[in-house]
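Annotators were shown the component list below and the corresponding predicted structure, then asked to write short factual statements about the assembly.
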Amino acid sequence: MIILDTLFIGGLRFVLEKLAAAVEAERDDDSALREELLAAQMRLELGEITETQFAAVEAELLRGIAEVRARREGEAPAPGALRVTGAEVTLEGDEGEVEPPARPARRRGAKARSPRRR
Amino acid sequence: MRLRFFGGKGGAGKTTLAAASALAEAEAGRRVLVVSTDPAHSLGDALGFSLRGRTRRVPTRRGVLHAVELDADRALGRWMARRRAAFRAIALHGTLLERREVDRLLRLALPGVDELIGLIEVMRLAGTRRHDTVVVDTAPTGHALRLLATPALLARIAEVLDGLYAKHRFLARHLRGEYRPDAADALIAELDDEARALTARLRDPTQTELVWVTLPEVLSLRETAAAVGQLAALGIDVTRVLVNQLTGNKEARRCPACAARRRSERAALAAISSKLAQRPLGVVLAQAREPRNLPSLRALARELAAAGRARAGAPGEWGIEQGSPRPRPPGRRPAARPTARQSRDWLNTLAPPGTRLLLFVGKGGVGKTTCAATAALALAARGGGAVLLVSTDPAHSLGDVLGHEVGDRPRAIPGAPSGLRVQEIDAQAGFHSWRAKHRDELEAALGGPGRAGMRVAFDGDVVRDLLDLTPPGLDELWSVRTLIAAISPPPAGGPRYRLVVVDTAPTGHALRMLAMPDIALAWVRELLALLLRYRQILRPGQLARDLVEISRDLRRFRALLRDGRATRAVLVSRAGHLPMRETERLGRSLRALRIGVSTLILNAMSAAEDRACPRCAEGARGVRPALRSTLDRLVAPAVAPPPRGVRALEAWGRRWTRLAG
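Structure shown to annotators:
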């Protein structure tokens, strides 16, 4: 049982870390915008959008990328400033039933807490 | 049941000899099937019947003879129809794809279909009417080698499918506690068994006989020696080498052109005999008339039987007299003068300014390579920018024609105009090095962790197996890729070619290559659509960027192919009924692909004064349909020995003429 739960929580923690990474990416990184641009190119190639529509989307995304770059050059936050420091999980009731996962810590420099185990 | 393959360079006489051999064996009282696997069929022409994809019974004095020209697309369709559900099950359980997506993928045309299904279909046909012997007339060398290597490919495909299905078996065993093999497992086992059985059969000389047909000329003999080596690497032994269309003593005594031809044949045989000496060699003399009906095939079969008794040895022991008439002094001879007015200004007819892609196409053995090399030398000498001469035939002979080594990277040839670069595409090597370079990236894209940290597409092992697979139709795919690179603006500092002259593979596979952009585009778009749909979890990244670029390139290339001013297809043919018929069919197929055919080169036209000789005259007889053609026509005169090396090619080119009117 303990092994199962440890595995479960370990897995959960992994997912939460990924989420945190994605959040950080949205804020500071232009990679999401670049992926949007790539998707637009794919749509153009597949004939799902016209050249004109693509040009509009491209202009919008390039502006966004330029903004991100300007912001990054302005404040330049330390890399890896946002970290998952813990996940709080309560296990109740029947086996296998699990509460929705706790939200990840969001504040910078939040104190690490150990996940609770049964 | 015994299998007898006839392989060899295009135009060596595979089809005619296969038909003669099948007819003789049937009339010895056995049940025989003769089947052609070359996408450009001429078996019907040789037998004097229209076959059109159906199995027909050929009237024989004794025994039973069936003949069929294999229709690979239909054969694959039929094979697939019965296995579609199993393929679908594997794809659904082994990937993330939805049923609709899987069905779309399963409907796409496959590259390399002739080689993929050829052997399987031959075995199926052989089984239906209980034949004692199946005679297979294969496509010219390069693709015959691919066909004979199919069993290994089938085994690899079975492995990949097995890997894809392993996940499903694992889950079923854990969720249900047991796993019962289903139709998908049966399909995987069938493919694997078929691969094993075919391998064993091809390697067993008591079940399979492999006759390699060659002409007594340098290119054909060199190609034969190379093919014998490549087949040995596959564990397949060439049973017999047949030297076909040898000029006889009788003709050589009477006709100076035949005497010169015979001398060059003897020199070529002497040069290569040490390499082929261990194989039983047979010799078939040139027939005064093209064999193209049953009586003439019977006569040829008698000669074939006699050739079977000949053994290896020095050329002098092959029934060739050592003495021969004195050579006519070399010099300007009047070129063929069929009926029309002639002009020497052929270069602008062949490639008017603005031509980007000049495709030399034709039946095997008509002299595509020699003509393409001659034209490229003249075009490079005209100046105005770099010219690339590139061969897309997996059995290359550009190096032999130019008398200088040529490789996979474009290179200059000593003595040739400085603007000329020459390349022989090596699809296998090119693909392997590309794969090695992109391996990590592909593994990451297909099997690496996606956005949610799951292994999204496939298991790592499956991805590795998939990447190890050499795709069917690789020669055509890689040729298209190379041609696109050659006509595109250079990335940095490389040469920009004003004109690319392509020496294509013989008819059938040249057509497959020219149809490849459409097939590849369909696959690329399907993959792009999938990546787009799953981009939230798959992270398309570099793979998607590459596919977008490939898709653009393919569309541009297709547009170029269909632009009649930029792309010109040049039909090369010899005079003669069978070559002319195949040339006409080829012209129609090219037009169906919306590729403009501009010029017809009549190669090796015998000179007017040689027409007293029946053999030389036969060649000129078949020229009449060409004279009715509305294409621009060039005449390249017959010379013996055929021109080899830059200087000889340039000299030969100066004797080409344009037929007017």
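Statements collected:
1. The radius of gyration of chain B is 26 Å.
2. Chain B has two domains: 2-309, 341-660.
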